Amino acid sequence: MEMPAARPRDHLFDVDPSTGLLARARQLPSPNCDDRPPGAVPELIVVHGISLPPGEFGGPWIDLLFTNALPRAAHPYFATIEALRVSSHVLVRRDGELVQYVPFHRRAWHAGVSSWRGRERCNDFSIGIELEGADDVPYSDAQYASLSGLAASLASAYPGLAPDAIAGHSDVAPGRKTDPGSVFDWPRLRRLLAMHVAAREERT
Ligand SMILES: [Zn+2]
């Protein structure tokens, strides 16, 4: 029997538009979300970088931050951020694992004061994706693979979201935010994303 040609694993990232959930992500609901404004739909993906404590990978700390359960005693840095009420829709861990905190049709609290193409309050109309990382540490191959597959699936699930509507947190909050950092390889993401989009179009 002939094997099908290798193709991106974007079936891993299928989105159910009725629930706003990713089929195969680990689900960990965050209370830090609310409704989007009336009529607002996803039109932008904002890419972030996060590590807790800063520069350290692994551990439960990002999950705990997004669920308001970060223990201030565990690290001096945690006391400085324990009052934050933040979330993202999805976290991509170093090994490519996806964790979803907020359904895509709801508003996650990730971008803060921000603007994109002249529109303010990016949380209203964006999907926030955190990459576990730091501004000066290259992101992993698995993260580029997961992020590109996820972005292609989201563009297919949400018609308002153009495949090229992706910006960094530093792009929508310049001067205030630096993530995902200068090491983030935008041409690589756009190349992978174009492959995923083409593969999806071929199958439909
Ligand atoms: Zn950010």
Summary, kept brief:
The chain is of the alpha/beta class. It has helices at residues 61-66, 76-81, 141-157, 169-172, 186-203, and strands spanning 15-16, 21-22, 26-27, 33-35, 44-50, 90-92, 98-100, 106-108, 115-116, 119-120, 126-132, 166-168. It has five helices and twelve strands.
What does this structure look like?
The protein has 204 residues and is α/β, with parallel strands linked by helices. It has a single domain (22-30, 43-203), classed as Lysozyme-like (3-Layer(aba) Sandwich). Helices cover 25% and strands 19% of the residues. It has five helices and twelve strands. The strands form four sheets. A six-stranded mixed sheet has the order 3-7-6-11-5-12. Strands 1-2 form a two-stranded antiparallel ribbon. It has a two-stranded antiparallel sheet with strand order 4-8. β9 and β10 form a beta hairpin. α3 crosses α5 (186-203). It is globular and about 50 Å long. It binds zinc ion. Zinc ion (ZN) binds next to loops.
